Amino acid sequence: MKISIYDTTLRDGSQGEGISFSVSDKIRIAHELNKLGVHFVEGGWPGSNPKDIEFFREIRNHKFETTKIAAFGSTRRSNVLPENDDNLIKLLESETPAVTMFGKSWTLHVLKILKTTLDENVKMIYDSIKLMKDNGRLGFYDAEHFFDGYKDDPKYAIETLLSAQEAGADCIILCDTNGGSMPGEIRSIIQAVKQHISTPLGIHCHNDSGLAVANSLIAVEEGVKQIQGTMNGFGERTGNANLTTIIPNLKLKYNHDVVTGDQLKLLCEVSQFVDELANRSHESNAPYVGRSAFAHKGGMHVNAVQKTPISFEHIEPELVGNQRRVLVSELAGRSNIFLKAKELNIDLQQNTPEVKDILKQLKNLEHQGYEFEAAEGSFELLVRKTLEKHDNFFDLLGFRVIVEKRNDELISEATIKLKVGDKEQYTVSEGHGPVNAMDKALRKALEKFYPALASVDLVDFKVRVMEGTSGTGARVRVLIQSRANGKYWGTVGVSENIIEACWEALSDSVEYKLLKDEIEARS
Questions:
Q1: Going by DSSP bridges, is the β-strand pair 98-104/138-144 parallel, antiparallel, or unpaired?
Q2: pTM for this one?
């Protein structure tokens, strides 16, 4: 039996703070997980809310090549016949090929939460799984709080698993629900369980101790056949075991054929897609899928990667759909500049005076407070101007920004005078704040010459005070992210005057867009 990946993003993951998926979102995510090669996708708890009932009704109309949809619910209530239990009835009505039921393995929960007897709890587990198996479903049993239960009363914890096994469970999943178990405990307890249970085992870990991935992989080493987790580690409290880390580790480190090589290349794409629907920023330093996972900044590191990538990369980034990035900063060396220029399709030889000149300018600007890691647009302009491969598209003759309060309303007005070729332009615009006013005035002046600027949106704007001890006279750094036709770029400006810093970043943003359009037109 191969190891199967069981995703519970749509149920357990959505219990994370600030995460909510619509029915449409859940269906779209299920299709993405199918493309990734996930074997089981837990769609929700049909007995808990109308949204999940609707999901299971709608998902019947969709076909999946790899994925089986699972419904989730609890074992029957105490002293209720399984065929009369509302929760079990709704699980059957969901018509999913697989059903996962959780039950209690810890005497604390049986006696103080369910308030029933230990014997009745064992019967509840048996009856619930037996009903699902009698109705032709794959029956998975989530032994909730199993590791805590085993540490408290190992004999009873095993008894609950034997009940699930006797009922015909297809897989018994051991859950570290509180997320407090250590890897050594996980290993030793699984070894003990295997002395009594012949049914295939699974693992379900929470991340409260920061060990969910490690504990899941320890379980793999002990022979479990199903790994439960969520995309990007979503989940209640500190989250669940992160499948974007587990899947590539299983495939690339343990050589388990859990997904194909082509499916693994979709990992970054699917990870970002789930974050997008959850309305969350993608975690930059996430293993494998983060934007910084294969980013190199130190000059010696970049030099080594240029010669032999394996020197500072544990895998080829393309295997998981990621890519190598070279960062430029005051820590950069000549290799950074050369490789970054190559990445930007700029013809630059490594051992030339131009590289030395660019590096000198870069270090000087970063000393002043500029930061080019998130402002690659400004960096490319710097390189091209140094190489004399770029002429300005416009020249600033002057600007003025006024912020005025009129009848309890703040009004921002920007006046810009610039020159395009031999023609001068003088424009005035109002905006929601001085930056918006400047942006509108600049576009207003240039769009008649460069109509493509109408497609540019300013999507992010950050200001950072550079010297905290200088108070209101401190130098500030402004980072702007812009977008046009699905492409993003960042630019930077630095000054003691926040308006001047904004102007630098704004004008670089516009100039970068025009530069890229010109390069594309020539190619």
A1: parallel
A2: 0.72
